[in-house]
Specification:
This protein is α+β, with helices and mostly antiparallel strands. The chain is built from 36 helices and 17 strands.
Length: 772
């Protein structure tokens, strides 16, 4: 019943920030200006759209009316699409009313305290297939209303109010309520919906003074600040020195002069010159990705991971074969694709100004794939003109988010219904043939192809094994981590999944990837160092703090923060301190988020700075009184100081605010066990296991505690039930072996020992147990 170490909790805090980012549903964007928020004179070298369009009129005309142009708009008769003619909408016991008053738009709904009042709609947010509405608060926050307008035609089910979280009962106490942190425009949305966004958060006052130079996704959102380009174009000052790049801050010329040449034999195209940079893709990924912000100051032309950390193919975000599950946008999927590997960029398929496809429907695919080979029943096995004959239906299946918004998977994969049988993944076949099952689809595909389907994406076995804790997980993950033909995002995911499994045979895979060309892989490898002995962590982490990519440096700083200064070579201490200061600065750049202060609290705790650590945790709780990790780590900090009674008090207070947290119940139970309050602790452990049955650890600890209390039969019942849900959990299996052995249940002991030996064939403790 050990609690997690500080280094483990720092990892949890970092990944929590990744998970927290982009929880707010983001609809298609809208356009306008605002004298209150927008700067009169654009800052940071930005010149504004009006200046750009003087010379680039054709591009401006193409952009007008696009989803980037239609970003955010002031709420006016022309921009508001929803029914504000005293329309009513009921959700979670609250009836909201939408109406107009004195030319302005209002909603009468529940505020943060649950009381109904009138709120003015300041801006519209989106156009197709839904429109959201932003409410402005006196502290500078803009909050996105949870009730949205369905802008689709009435015959398609639209022209109605609907809630973005149907059936979830999101009331004013819920973390997803529109007034809460997760629906805050300033952090969750604004960077990607406006140009030259300056969040301007003041921690002391807990206020925002957010500004932009263009309210929508305008020219400089993609091309970067334009002042130097204007100087070059108008031949101002020393403009000649800008000739090389025309004063542009980002090079978006990766397609210049490039042709895709279709080979007659294969029917596929090859790029006339290899793509050697990823400026365009990473510029798009800044917004079209599920990612966490690492640094507040985005710089065009710099690598994406200087400022953002992309989401890996983790549980809940992606299925085990890498297909999209949660709303992860495009980047993580596209990185998996063969198209990305072959050099395709976003603008090969999408016009960067209109955002439309470069050719209608199948035509965009036939730019690179010969129609004579692929647009035929011999390839797609469907009737011409049917839905199944469309490339995207098989290779880019849809999932619907925000209730009405279908998004296509950009991994451009070969359908694998056989994997649906093995790994419970979706497949394109049964997406359409809803009356059929995966077995039927797998048999049909095998009949068509003369064998099982193949493809370039083949890491489902490894990621699935990791998620279910299968005995072969470590072996498969090592193979994936070392497969240089696999996408970097998959290899990085494998390395992250290896962390709790690391042994002698897999440590080498981590070390070898510390120098990988892909920064996603390097970052994951550095993260895995927290499982290494201190000296190895120090030696390998020191090499990483000089990395060119900030994400890698920050992860290395996090690893080295727990190493005592006296253990660091004297000639390296200054470099380590600089890296740690950069990490601290990165957290301060996101000071409006509780996760950032949690990260700071963990860092200071690792360094022995108790005062700073406690201050950081309490700041996190001030920003979000329901932020459970801060409560748990604050209690750990108090306990480490010998204040167990204060730790228990803090956890009890936390449970008054957050009543259904398994983590809080578990943490308080462990504290009570240390105080020998066994009965109360057992009740809390039981409740933790009930609240989070998917977390094997809670059931395991509850079972062990029951056994320690002399209630072995109950313990065995709990653990055997848990083993049914978590058949590969090593701790549960080991507990079952030892408890059945002690009870003299020889048959059960042997059965569970056989299962455990599949996971730990070389474990000396298990060999000793088998000897007994």
């Amino acid at each position: 019943m050990k609690t997690q170490s500080v280094s483990q909790r720092i990892h949890i805090a970092t990944t929590w920030l990744v998970a927290a980012c982009m929880l707010l549903p983001i609809s298609t964007l809208a356009d306008a200006s605002s004298a209150e928020h927008g700067a009169d004179v654009p800052a940071n070298g930005h010149v504004g759209r009006a200046t750009c369009t003087k010379c680039h009129a054709q591009e401006a005309r193409a952009w007008e009316g696009s989803h980037h142009d239609l970003a955010m708009q002031d709420a006016t008769d022309q921009t508001v699409l929803g029914n504000f003619d005293n329309a009513a909408f009921e959700y979670a016991g609250v009836t909201s009313r939408f109406f107009r008053r004195n030319g302005k738009f209002f909603v009468h709904t529940d505020g943060a305290d649950g009381k109904l009042r009138d709120f003015e709609v300041k801006y519209t947010f989106g156009v197709i297939p839904l429109q959201q509405y932003l409410i402005e608060f006196p502290d500078g926050r803009l909050q996105a209303l949870g009730i949205a307008w369905d802008t689709r035609p009435r015959e398609a089910g639209g022209q109605r109010w609907f809630h973005l979280y149907p059936g979830q009962g999101v009331d004013h106490k819920h973390e997803l309520h529109w007034t809460g942190l997760q629906q805050n425009w300033n952090f969750m949305c604004a960077e990607c919906h406006s140009t030259n966004l300056q969040r301007s958060y003041d921690l002391a006052g807990n206020t925002f003074a957010t500004s932009w130079s263009d309210i929508d996704v305008s020219c400089e959102a993609c091309h970067g600040p334009g002042s130097e380009h204007v100087r070059w174009a108008e031949k101002q000052g020393d403009w000649q020195r800008l000739d090389a790049n025309k004063g542009l801050t980002i090079d978006l010329t990766e397609r210049d002069g490039v042709r895709w040449i279709v080979e007659s034999a294969s029917g596929n195209a090859q790029r006339s010159t290899a793509r050697t940079t990823a400026h365009e893709i990473e510029m798009c990924a800044r917004c079209h990705a599920r990612r966490a912000p690492l640094w507040g100051d985005y710089r065009h032309g710099r690598p994406l991971m200087d400022t953002h950390l992309p989401q890996l193919l983790t549980h809940g975000m992606y299925f085990t074969d890498g297909q999209i599950q949660e709303e992860v946008y495009v980047y993580g999927s596209f990185l998996q694709s063969k198209m990305h590997r072959e050099g395709v960029t976003c603008s090969d398929c999408h016009d960067p100004h209109t955002l439309k496809l470069r050719a209608p429907d199948e035509g965009v695919c036939m730019q690179c794939h010969a129609a004579t080979k692929y647009a035929t029943p011999a390839h797609h096995h469907h009737k011409r003109g049917s839905a199944g004959a469309r490339c995207v239906e098989c290779h880019m299946p849809e999932r619907t988010y925000m209730v009405v918004d279908p998004r296509r998977d950009h991994s451009l994969r070969v359908p694998r219904p056989d994997w649906s049988l093995s790994y419970d993944t979706p497949n394109a076949c049964t997406n359409c043939h809803t009356d059929k099952n995966a077995q039927w689809a797998a048999e049909i595909v095998e009949k068509w192809l003369g064998g099982p389907a193949g493809g370039s994406i083949d890491y489902a076995p490894a990621l699935h094994a990791a998620r279910v804790g299968a005995p072969e997980a470590e072996r498969l993950l090592v193979a994936l981590a070392l497969d240089n033909q696999a996408p970097g995002v998959a290899r990085a995911t494998a390395i992250r999944a290896l962390q709790p499994l690391l042994s002698r045979r897999s440590i080498d895979a981590v070390v070898r990837n510390l120098g990988d060309p892909d920064p996603l892989v390097r970052t994951a490898a550095v993260s895995a160092l927290e499982r290494f002995p201190q000296q190895a962590r120090l030696e390998l982490g020191l090499a990483a703090i000089g990395d060119d990519i900030r994400a890698v440096r920050l992860e290395a700083a996090r690893q080295l923060a727990v190493v005592p200064p006296q253990a660091i070579p004297s000639d390296k201490r200054a470099s380590v301190q600089l890296a740690i200061e950069e990490y601290i600065a990165a957290q301060h750049s996101n000071a409006d988020r509780p996760e950032a202060h949690l990260n700071l609290g963990l860092l200071y705790a690792a360094q022995g700075d108790v005062i700073q650590s406690e201050r950081a945790y309490r700041t996190a709780l001030k920003l979000d009184p329901k932020f459970v990790p801060a409560y748990v780590n604050l209690a750990d900090l108090l306990r480490a100081q010998g204040n167990e009674a204060l730790a228990i008090e803090a956890l009890r207070e936390a449970m008054k605010t957050v009543t259904d947290s398994a983590e809080l119940h578990h943490a308080l139970a462990l504290a009570l066990i240390r105080q020998r309050q066994q009965n109360d602790a057992l009740a809390l452990l039981k409740r933790a296991a009930e609240l989070a049955p998917d977390v094997a650890r809670y059931s395991y600890v509850y079972g062990v505690a029951l056994n320690s209390a002399g209630r072995r039969d109950e313990a065995l019942t709990v653990l055997e039930q848990a083993q049914q849900s978590h058949p590969n959990d090593r701790d549960i299996l080991f507990a079952l072996v030892t408890m059945h052995r002690d009870a003299g249940h020889q048959e059960a002991t042997r059965r569970y020992a056989r299962e455990l030996s599949q996971h730990l064939p070389d474990d000396p403790a298990l060999r000793a147990l088998a000897g007994e």
